[in-house]
Amino acid sequence: MAINNVMVIGAGQMGAGIAQVCAQSGFNVLLHDRDKNALQAGINGIEKLLARNVEKKRLTKEEKATTLGRLTPSHTLEDAATCDLIIEAVVENMDVKSAVFKEVDTHAPKHAILASNTSSLPITEIAAETKRPDQVIGMHFMNPVPVMKLVEIIRGLQTSDETYETIQMMTVQLSKTPVEVKDFPGFVSNRILMPMINEAIYTVYEGVATPKDVDQVMKLGMNHPMGPLTLADFIGLDTCLYIMEVLHEGFGDSKYRPCPLLRQYVKAGWLGKKSGKGFYEYS
Ligand code: CAA
Ligand code: NAD
């Protein structure tokens, strides 16, 4: 199936990145968010990153203008009616995602594929909310989307081979590397990454070392580009907590118990970089 028109739902850090990469790769993109300010912030962020690419001579001024010309803000999910692929990137919460999929399923044309950028939630369950479960799939981009090469592609129990092949091809068109993964809590990436981040938070909670020192150990000792607490702030502590809860509930194993300090930070509204405070402060 040919994909030309894409709708991205959620204009936060992931949605904006996905919209940018799709527009840069030649797709027409509608970017939607239920929050007008978030939508504008998403578009401003894309403009800023494209301008930086022009500055760095990775993009010409004309390519920047063409890319922005392919990007249109959307204020209603009804716009899905013109799209071949809808990629959902709203908060990591099953109720919110279910409601979005239910509604978008009523607007999208029959042939359209509905993809979720979920970090951990079951694609099989999301698919069951729609009348086209064979055309629902997980398309898990990594943050920051314009930089990271991987897309985990998650097949729900109902996902058809045709849907899988279309999304695999599209991923390659975005200059990303697809990896096929089965529908298990956290898939591969977050089943491995998030317990490490949670353990780093426990290390701080138990007073073993400061956040800065925990990060230093993992950066200098393990050659990680970012320490786990810097990375947690970068991902968003709310998202980290949601993912740990999915792992904890999905596997029923206490080894995935979210650290109480992570819960406390999220309750305090300390969500990391996006809220200005997490394990570190951001201006
Ligand atoms: N958006 C877009 N591009 C960005 C960016 C952002 N937020 N941050 C950095 N970049 C790009 C810039 O183009 C920059 O190059 P220029 O300065 O030439 O423009 C380039 O990346 C390098 O950036 P920096 O020199 O500022 O910093 P760095 O060398 O430390 O690289 C990084 C930044 C690529 C983010 C690197 O620190 C890194 O790889 N960190 C780990 C990221 C990671 O693990 N991501 C996965 C998160 S988990 C996930 O996504 C799954 C999930 O479900 C939670
Ligand atoms: P974010 O908080 O930056 O953005 C979420 C956006 O969704 C917000 O702008 C919000 O206004 C919007 N939104 C919420 N409910 C909506 C609705 N019903 N309709 C339309 N828009 C709605 O979050 P994010 O970090 O971009 O994460 C989005 C998704 O991507 C989550 O499922 C997350 O697990 C996943 N993800 C995150 C990362 C990461 O590193 N942050 C990496 C990969 C995948």
UniProtKB/TrEMBL annotation:
One MF annotation (Gene Ontology) recorded for this entry: NAD+ binding
Keyword Iron set for record: no
Record site: Important for catalytic activity: H140
One example of a Gene Ontology biological process annotation: butyrate metabolic process
Residues annotated for NAD(+) binding in this entry: G10, A11, G12, Q13, M14, G15, D33, E92, K97, S119, N143, K274
UniProt EC number: 1.1.1.157
Enzyme class (EC, first level): oxidoreductase
Domain named 3-hydroxyacyl-CoA dehydrogenase C-terminal: residues: 186-282
SUPFAM superfamilies documented for this protein: 6-phosphogluconate dehydrogenase C-terminal domain-like, NAD(P)-binding Rossmann-fold domains
Keywords annotated in UniProt: NAD, Oxidoreductase
A Pfam entry, by short name: 3HCDH_N
Pathway assignment: Lipid metabolism; butanoate metabolism
Family: Belongs to the 3-hydroxyacyl-CoA dehydrogenase family.
PANTHER family: 3-HYDROXYACYL-COA DEHYDROGENASE FAMILY PROTEIN, 3-HYDROXYBUTYRYL-COA DEHYDROGENASE
Name of the protein: 3-hydroxybutyryl-CoA dehydrogenase
Organism of this sequence: Oceanobacillus profundus
